Amino acid sequence: MVKLSPSILSANFANLKEDIEKVEKAGVDMLHIDVMDGQFVPNISIGPVVLKSVSKITNLILDVHLMIDEPDRYIKEFVDGGANIITVHLEACTHIHRTIQLIKSYGVKVGVSLNPGTPLNHLEYILDDVDMVLLMSVNPGFGGQKFIPAIKDKIRELKKMIDARGLNIDIEVDGGIKVDNVKEVVEAGANVIVAGSAIFGADNVEESVRSFREEIK
Ligand SMILES: O=C(CO)[C@@H](O)[C@H](O)COP(=O)(O)O
Ligand SMILES: [Co+2]
């Protein structure tokens, strides 16, 4: 079953509660929380304080995407804020293995994300330790960018690596996913789809979620 994880980066932050209720009612599976530090990526978004408030008004799985340098410093705060899955960028961690163990020690799920230009072989010695791999299909930092087509091959390769090891790891893809390209992403092997502008930015959120579901059923 393919899961939908709309990114609140494209929500109206002055109206966040209503926006989240809309996607929840529309039947999405998770809520993707983009955290940006203005250092690892050239943008600043939200942190654990907002996450904590969000966790109080939704039952959706909170899928936290940390685009911050040396995330070990803040893992506990995001756990306390209600994160169910914490994904860190491989490129942002000096000791990725240690960071993965730290996240697991709090009993939450752990994901590792790769920028579009980072090769899959960097996962070789950590793949067995993670619950999810997040492949970026845009360069991180902003919503509303264009999907990078080469990532479809990367998804296929990752799926092969996971299957060859007999692992049960989610493949999440994030950036530029719309109703008209989601099918290709799922066919390549992704089973968690992030969509920001295409869901929170849609005129009719319910209709957008329905169209996504139709494409990936
Ligand atoms: O992590 C990021 C961007 O860095 C994403 O989660 C975006 O927020 C997705 O937005 P769209 O590309 O779907 O508009
Ligand atoms: Co994201």
From TrEMBL:
Substrate binds at residues 7, 65, 141-144, 174-176, 196-197. GO terms for cellular component: cytoplasm. The keyword Transcription does not apply. One of its GO terms (molecular function) is metal ion binding. InterPro entries: Aldolase_TIM, Ribul_P_3_epim, Ribul_P_3_epim-like, RibuloseP-bd_barrel. Binds 1 divalent metal cation per subunit. SUPFAM superfamilies: Ribulose-phoshate binding barrel (SSF51366). It comes from the Bacteria. Gene3D superfamilies: Aldolase class I (3.20.20.70). It catalyses: D-ribulose 5-phosphate = D-xylulose 5-phosphate. Keywords: Carbohydrate metabolism, Cobalt, Isomerase, Manganese, Metal-binding, Zinc. Its cofactor is Mn(2+); a divalent metal cation; Zn(2+); Fe(2+). Its EC number is 5.1.3.1. The active site is at residues 34, 174. One of its GO terms (biological process) is pentose-phosphate shunt. HAMAP family: RPE. This is Ribulose-phosphate 3-epimerase. It comes from Anaeromicrobium sediminis. The lineage of its organism: Bacteria, Bacillati, Bacillota, Clostridia, Peptostreptococcales. The gene is rpe.
